[in-house]
């Protein structure tokens, strides 16, 4: 089996900033409620750029940072719950924009865990020799499926994209372990968004249905606090390191109180979790790579640092990756 490492990251968020006070003009809410219950102060909302555009901009930064030619990329996987279209995939749209003619491209649906799942797929393709260089992306334009009349959900989400280039390596093993899992029981009651209903000339009364995000906040809250410690425990299995050796945990940015509660369960300081939720809100599949690239840009990561990425979301889906940073 080959080793796999991250050789570059990138991210992009739309320039329009929407503050909590801006939202108080749309729904009955206020800055105090949103920031104290979630930790969110503002989020980025697209004024026209769709998921493939955000993905392409994140991908171009990752390609530049990795110092590779787009023709070297032989796999593109996009984790998204808000693609531009059913067909073609977001990954194919990105491929055309960046000129990665040699890549196999597809999207995966794992909601907020989308980036961890995409990272796992890229890693397994490289380990088995199916490909050498993979572009993995987490990207969302959730603002197009959010119910802007529902104050309990519309204040939580933001738009954005993050990307990483993975490459096979003979000597250095950057992706030390990955764990993923799912639980489909009663999942739509936790968090859901319908696609198109079944309708054709052979059905008398076709169902009318809108594609909008619905959520049971309290259940998701409880799920998040339990599943983060479980995923972190799982990535340490058969590994020669413990939580003490970890410099940062980069979690899915859903709610500051979920992170505080998970930190308590893990008996670690909340500061070990890198957070940018206050500025971006919950960007679903984009949140982890957006945070990771911000850390790389700000010089927080050095060769040899051990970090954990951990995500959870609709499906239900969950997962984590234990990574040794290999970029100087
Ligand atoms: N502004 C003001 N008041 C509000 C708002 C708002 N935006 N939203 C709800 N309220 C009101 C409710 O109507 C309710 O009022 P009532 O007591 O008069 O009935 C009150 O605030 C309390 O509402 P709750 O839903 O009980 O609030 P709670 O403390 O549970 O917080 C929240 C809600 C922030 C959504 C919390 O449950 C949470 O963070 N859950 C996690 C969900 C999450 O992170 N989802 C992200 C997507 S899922 C994912 O990423 C995996």
Automatic annotation (TrEMBL):
Major place of residence: cytoplasm
GO BP terms: fatty acid biosynthetic process
Q: What does this protein do?
A: Catalyzes the condensation reaction of fatty acid synthesis by the addition to an acyl acceptor of two carbons from malonyl-ACP. Catalyzes the first condensation reaction which initiates fatty acid synthesis and may therefore play a role in governing the total rate of fatty acid production. Possesses both acetoacetyl-ACP synthase and acetyl transacylase activities. Its substrate specificity determines the biosynthesis of branched-chain and/or straight-chain of fatty acids.
The protein's matches in NCBIfam families, at most eight in alphabetical order, are given as: fabH (TIGR00747), PRK09352.1 (NF006829)
* Database matches in InterPro entries: ACP_syn_III_C, ACP_syn_III_N, FabH, Thiolase-like
What is written about domains in the entry's comments? The last Arg residue of the ACP-binding site is essential for the weak association between ACP/AcpP and FabH.
Spell out the protein name for this chain: Beta-ketoacyl-[acyl-carrier-protein] synthase III
- Please report the organism this UniProt entry assigns to the protein: Clostridium pasteurianum BC1
Q: Which reaction does it catalyse?
A: 3-methylbutanoyl-CoA + malonyl-[ACP] + H(+) = 5-methyl-3-oxohexanoyl-[ACP] + CO2 + CoA; 2-methylpropanoyl-CoA + malonyl-[ACP] + H(+) = 4-methyl-3-oxopentanoyl-[ACP] + CO2 + CoA; malonyl-[ACP] + acetyl-CoA + H(+) = 3-oxobutanoyl-[ACP] + CO2 + CoA; (2S)-2-methylbutanoyl-CoA + malonyl-[ACP] + H(+) = (4S)-4-methyl-3-oxohexanoyl-[ACP] + CO2 + CoA
Keywords, sorted A to Z: Acyltransferase, Cytoplasm, Fatty acid biosynthesis, Fatty acid metabolism, Lipid biosynthesis, Lipid metabolism, Membrane, Multifunctional enzyme, Transferase, Transmembrane, Transmembrane helix
Per the UniProt record, one Pfam family is ACP_syn_III_C
Q: Which CDD domains match?
A: KAS_III
């Amino acid at each position: 089996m080959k080793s796999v490492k991250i050789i570059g990251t990138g991210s992009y968020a739309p320039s329009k900033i929407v503050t909590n006070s801006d939202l108080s003009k749309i729904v009955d809410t206020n800055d105090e409620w949103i920031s104290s219950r979630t930790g969110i102060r503002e989020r980025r909302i697209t004024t026209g750029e769709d998921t493939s555009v955000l993905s392409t901009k994140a991908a171009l930064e990752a390609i530049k940072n990795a110092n590779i030619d787009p023709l070297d990329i032989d796999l593109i996987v996009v984790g998204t719950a808000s693609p531009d279209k059913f067909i073609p995939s977001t990954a194919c749209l990105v491929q055309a924009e960046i000129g990665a003619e040699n890549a196999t491209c597809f999207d995966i649906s794992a909601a907020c865990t989308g980036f961890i799942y995409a990272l796992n797929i890229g890693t397994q393709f490289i380990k088995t020799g199916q490909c050498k260089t993979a572009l993995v992306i987490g990207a969302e334009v959730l603002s197009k499926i959010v119910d802007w009349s529902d104050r309990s959900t519309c204040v939580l989400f933001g738009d954005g994209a993050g990307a990483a280039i993975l490459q096979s390596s003979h000597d250095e093993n950057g992706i030390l372990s990955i764990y993923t899992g799912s639980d489909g029981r009663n999942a739509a009651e936790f968090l859901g968004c319908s696609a198109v209903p079944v309708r054709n000339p052979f059905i008398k009364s076709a169902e009318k249905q809108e594609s909008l995000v619905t959520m049971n906040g309290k259940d998701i809250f409880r799920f998040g606090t339990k599943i983060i410690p479980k995923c972190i425990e799982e990535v340490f299995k058969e590994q020669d390191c413990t939580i003490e050796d970890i410099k940062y945990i980069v979690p899915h940015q859903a709610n500051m109180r979920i992170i505080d509660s998970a930190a308590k369960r893990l008996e670690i300081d909340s500061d070990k979790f890198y957070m940018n939720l206050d500025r971006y809100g919950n960007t679903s599949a984009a949140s982890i790579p957006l945070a990771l690239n911000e850390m790389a840009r700000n010089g927080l990561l050095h060769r040899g640092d051990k970090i954990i990425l951990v995500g959870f979301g609709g499906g239900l889906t969950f997962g984590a990756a234990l990574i040794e940073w290999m970029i100087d």
